[in-house]
């Protein structure tokens, strides 16, 4: 059995930046176990598998896998897969599509070089103390921006949003893998456990996402799902409207730009993230 696959760099202003993604088409005959094995083999942060395709109504269904597990929702796979669908698979190249993932249908649109997704309504979970982090990092209480809480937020995948005072703290961050994992296991409300650190200095937003996967401390180059959580967080705690670029991946030499465009009105969050995708390769995968 042979599958066509595409490789794109997502949230990337140029090739070989942003977050890598492998997109496999015609994957409806694969089992979840096979998808997991392929994702582990290619070993990108995520790989996606197109299981249904309907050109008539511009829709598709996908499953998303990290090398370790399946995801219910993830931003960079949705943005990248949508770009492949709209520019490489759908012959009529629609500007709007609907992508089905385990949490539901995600509306996606393309405007120029940017592909945008609209996220689900956020849920704000537990808040935490800055002192907690001294047990598994080099951080002191003075490193945190006390204008914001530290809080777990989800729009489908949950992240603990951690505000820093400046980019220097972000750059110098050191985490103890074992102690961090123990804290995540003890405190996170969902099975998806990760930390999303950010600083907002004037109009510059910078971030880092770190989690434990395959017993390794992993840093992600660009995290769309975390960005939807951060956008919701900033709409709630900073300003009810936002248009800004979130810069991630700089400290692992994969600079990424995630575009924010959102508003909070009458307790309803309109959360939109966008990004550019760079086409890298197409091939055939033997199963």
Q: Given this structure, which CATH class of the largest domain is correct?
A: Alpha Beta
Major pleated sheet: 19 strands, mixed
SS class: alpha+beta
Q: State mean pLDDT (0 to 100 scale).
A: 96
Hey, roughly how much beta strand do the residues contain?
35-45%
SSE topology string? EEHEEEHEEEEEEHHEEEHEEEEE
Integer-rounded radius of gyration: 18 Å
Count of extended strands: 19
Silhouette: globular
Share in helix: 10-25%
Number of domains: 2
CATH superfamily of the largest domain: Diaminopimelate Epimerase, Chain A, domain 1
Helix count, per DSSP?
5
CATH topology of the largest domain: Diaminopimelate Epimerase, Chain A, domain 1
pLDDT < 50 runs, ≥5 residues: none
Euclidean distance between termini CA atoms:
5 Å
CATH architecture of the largest domain: Roll
């Amino acid at each position: 059995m042979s599958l066509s696959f595409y490789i794109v760099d997502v949230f990337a202003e140029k090739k070989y930046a942003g977050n890598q993604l492998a997109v496999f088409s015609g994957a409806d005959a694969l089992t979840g176990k096979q998808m997991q094995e392929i994702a582990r083999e290619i070993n990108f942060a995520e790989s996606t598998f197109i299981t249904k395709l309907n050109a008539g109504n511009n829709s598709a269904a996908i499953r998303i896998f990290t090398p370790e597990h399946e995801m219910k929702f993830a931003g960079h796979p949705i943005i990248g897969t949508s770009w492949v669908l709209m520019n490489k698979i759908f012959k009529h190249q629609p500007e709007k599509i609907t992508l089905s993932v385990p949490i539901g249908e995600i509306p996606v649109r393309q405007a120029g070089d940017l592909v945008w997704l609209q996220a689900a309504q956020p849920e704000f979970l537990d808040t935490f103390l800055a002192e907690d982090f001294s047990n598994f990092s080099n951080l002191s209480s003075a490193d945190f921006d006390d204008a914001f809480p530290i809080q777990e937020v989800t729009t489908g995948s949950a992240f603990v949003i951690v505000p820093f005072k400046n980019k220097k703290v972000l750059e110098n961050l050191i985490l103890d893998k074992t102690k961090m994992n123990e804290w995540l296991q003890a405190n996170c409300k969902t099975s998806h456990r990760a930390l999303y650190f950010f600083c907002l200095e004037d109009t510059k937003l910078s971030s880092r996402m770190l989690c434990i996967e395959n017993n390794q401390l992993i840093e992600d180059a660009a995290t769309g799902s975390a960005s939807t959580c951060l956008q919701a967080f900033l709409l709630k705690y900073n300003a009810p409207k936002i248009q800004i670029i979130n810069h991630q991946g700089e400290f692992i030499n994969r600079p990424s730009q995630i575009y924010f465009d959102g508003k909070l009105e009458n307790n309803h969050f309109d959360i939109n993230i966008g990004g550019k995708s760079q086409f890298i390769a197409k091939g055939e995968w033997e199963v």
